[in-house]
Amino acid sequence: MTPTPPGPEQLPSPYGIPLTVTTNQLDNEEGEVIERLRALATEQHVDEPIEVTEELKRSVLVTSLDALLDWGRSNSVWPVTLGLACCAFEMIAAVMPRFDQARFGMEIFRASPRQADLMIVSGTVTWKMAPVVRRIYEQMPNPKWVISMGVCATSGGPYYQGYSVVPGVNRLVPVDVYVPGCPPRPDALLHGLLKLQEKIKRDSLVREREPRLRKLIS
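Predicted structure:
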């Protein structure tokens, strides 16, 4: 005759309590712990505020690398010396004390394109001058920007149908900012320079180098 296996209440227990009673109690205790944790998890945890001393506030600036580099680049733009026509006189006047272009970190006009990163095309561009403008632009190191100053540089002006005039310098080099006028006043050029600064601050060195970094990683 096959013996009947013992029931759960007959199984031995180290505490002398039937096994079913022991497991039920453990399950209940574990369930209470889980419910307490669940109740706490639904409440938002408020972090304690970090105390920052006044000395630390005066000596620490938190920013991103892109913002820091763009701030430095936008306030240290060096134009190349390139005056093509009457707009060049207004460009020269913008550097004089009355308008003081140096306030924006752009006062150093460089005679060498190797030391410049901004080309201000001031005046009419003829086809005879076009190879020179293109060559100067190619000799400028990256990053570099171009401002088209005046209607003649932008679209040829009153000479746009002339056989010897380029109908827009954007046919030769990429243009970042257009300054209208014939000729534009020095304060109009300063407004264009401020717009260029805003554009430079929106640039990102990370995005510029992302394809190269991905190529190196792969």
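Summary: Helices lie at 19-41, 54-59, 65-74, 87-95, 130-139, 151-155, 186-202, 205-217.
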